Amino acid sequence: MKILWVKSDFLHPAVAGGRIRTLEILKRLRPRHEIHYAAFLYPDQAEALSCCGEYCSRAYPVPLRLPDKRSLAFALQVGASLFSRLPLAVSRYRSLKMQRLIASLRSAQRFDAVVCDFLVSAINLPDLSRCFLFQHNVETLIWQRHHSEARDPLRKFYFRLQARRMEALESRVCRQVAHIIAVSDADAQLMRSRFGVPRVSVVPTGVDLDFFAPPPSTAPTGDLVFIGAMDWLPNIDGVLFFVREILPLMRRRRPGCTLTVAGRNPGPEIRALARQDPLIRITGTVEDIRPCLWASAVSIVPLRIGGGTRLKIYESMAARVPVVSTSVGAEGLDLRSPDHFLLADTPTAFAEACLELLEAPERRASLAESAWCWIAERYSWPLVARRFEEILEENRRG
């Protein structure tokens, strides 16, 4: 097939779940198909173009500079968004250059499939009727959860406004596209019921078992690790929730309990945690997340907000690190507690689950082994990519 793939960014560095999922799928489609990849190129993605031959036949970069979220320019963007019909998380990516590029490509070439990767890419595709929407999350659900968890009145108002606008946009786009590809059965069912769209298929999250396999005789040197992009609001909320409400409960019984937060672009609020507590380490961007996992006894996913599925859980399991997660954190994954991970939704329950594993090496080992066996049988990337390929082939239009 000849595929036009439209996304809001290039895939290197692969430091976020959406990039990793797309990269692993495209790497496996690339040898069998002609992939044309159109995306924004940001100033901090210097290596992106040199690496893109790994996953596409031809790349079409459109330079874009987004204002820093702590800048006056971003504050002005937020103010202007109050009078827009689009949610800010989408409208800031609207680009006349990208729209013209895509229109030109589609008029000059015949593509067997056009993939709109994430909802945000849809605003630059004027004709969605023959497109596949690859939806890694139900975006409306994320913003509604932001609203539910917010305590400050202004933030609560803002999140409610954004959630309403996101639902209007997501519903419209889902009805316009030819087919939707979700990452979990839960997301697929929600889109069918909420947006009234029957044309939804599921491609689960995968993991590279060989890549994450720990070296022989590896033993943890730290207690807890959280992995995830630290410029994504659900991750920021989850880490702050853990440090403020769960970690103090654990320290009553385990005063020296350590936490490593590994992920790109931590803001001042997250970096301050390490200054206030010497037992908390904030890594910032890491080239290779595996050593952070291998050095930790337990991987935590204390999310209260989110959608889609969490790659961090499968990556932890592939690294043979046991996982403690909230229901939101493990949402959409075909996993059972306590067979594959420990589920805990209150601060007390989460603290107890972590302490149970930290204090019982045999329990940690058995849980890690059970989880590894489960994902090894079902969620390798070649299987995931083949399922994605089948959906494109079955539903493409001439």
- Unreliable spans are none
Tally of domains:
2
CATH fold type of the largest domain: Rossmann fold
* CATH hierarchy, class of the largest domain: Alpha Beta
| Helicity range | 40-55%
What does this structure look like?
By secondary structure, the chain is α/β, with parallel strands linked by helices. It folds into 2 domains: 2-206 and 381-395, Glycogen Phosphorylase B (Rossmann fold, 3-Layer(aba) Sandwich); 209-378, Rossmann fold, CATH 3.40.50. The protein is 46% helix and 16% strand. The chain has 16 helices and 13 strands. The strands form 2 sheets. A 7-stranded parallel sheet has the order 3-2-1-4-5-6-7, with helices on both faces. The chain has a 6-stranded parallel sheet with strand order 10-9-8-11-12-13, with helices on both faces. The longest helix is centred in the middle third of the chain and has 24 residues, at 153-176. The protein starts with a strand and ends with a helix. The mean pLDDT is 93.
What order do the helices and strands come in, and which of them pair?
Blueprint: E1 2-7, H1 17-29, E2 34-41, H2 48-51, E3 58-63, H3 72-81, H4 88-91, H5 96-108, E4 113-117, E5 131-135, H6 139-149, H7 153-176, E6 179-182, H8 185-195, E7 200-202, H9 209-212, E8 222-227, H10 233-253, E9 259-262, H11 268-276, E10 280-284, H12 290-294, E11 296-301, H13 311-318, E12 323-325, E13 342-343, H14 347-358, H15 361-378, H16 381-395
Parallel strand pairs: 1-2, 1-4, 2-3, 4-5, 5-6, 6-7, 8-9, 8-11, 9-10, 11-12, 12-13
